[in-house]
């Protein structure tokens, strides 16, 4: 949203060293390289004679590079879930953008955790039963829920 930042970014992206590539391509590039390494190592192994002493080293390198790639995907998945969780807290819960969350207001709750991720969120209609002395009344109320893998948080608009 900062126009000065956008202007500087445009200038940098237009520089000949960047070859008119957007900033996002430079952020993604390291991830792409790691995911392509097993393909490269596999090709090298196929071209290496099987009776060569280098063949065993090549197979071991392929195994290790594949392991690194697998670990990278696991950590990438965990990190992306963590980012979603943090942005949710910043946008919806901690700033209470029109939402009231009694549970969080009453007691501290460690919402951000490496073992917790957001499964689903959305608006629902809750039916609330109000029982009086001579009558029973049901009313509708709009609520917003956040379903995590281990906890459900229901908030209501102020």
Automatic annotation (TrEMBL):
<dbReference type="Pfam" id="PF00621">
    <property type="entry name" value="RhoGEF"/>
</dbReference>
<dbReference type="InterPro" id="IPR011993">
    <property type="entry name" value="PH-like_dom_sf"/>
</dbReference>
<dbReference type="InterPro" id="IPR000219">
    <property type="entry name" value="DH_dom"/>
</dbReference>
<protein>
    <submittedName>
        <fullName>ARHGQ factor</fullName>
    </submittedName>
</protein>
<dbReference type="GO" id="GO:0005085">
    <property type="term" value="F:guanyl-nucleotide exchange factor activity"/>
</dbReference>
<dbReference type="InterPro" id="IPR035899">
    <property type="entry name" value="DBL_dom_sf"/>
</dbReference>
<feature type="domain" description="DH">
    <location>
        <begin position="1"/>
        <end position="68"/>
    </location>
</feature>
<dbReference type="InterPro" id="IPR047271">
    <property type="entry name" value="Ephexin-like"/>
</dbReference>
């Amino acid at each position: 949203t900062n126009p000065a930042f956008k202007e500087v970014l445009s200038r940098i992206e237009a520089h000949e060293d960047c070859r008119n590539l957007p900033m996002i391509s430079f952020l993604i590039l390291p991830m792409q390289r790691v995911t392509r390494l097993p393909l490269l190592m596999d090709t090298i192994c196929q071209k290496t004679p099987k009776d060569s002493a280098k063949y065993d080293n090549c197979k071991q390198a392929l195994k290790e590079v594949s392991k690194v790639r697998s670990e990278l995907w696991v950590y990438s998945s965990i990190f992306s879930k963590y980012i979603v969780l943090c942005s949710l807290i910043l946008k919806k819960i901690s700033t209470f953008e029109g939402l009231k969350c009694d549970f969080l207001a009453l007691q501290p709750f460690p919402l951000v955790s490496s073992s917790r991720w957001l499964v689903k969120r959305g608006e629902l209609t809750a039916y609330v039963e109000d029982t009086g002395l001579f009558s029973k009344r049901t009313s509708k109320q709009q609520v917003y829920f956040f379903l995590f893998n281990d906890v459900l948080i229901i908030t209501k608009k102020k």
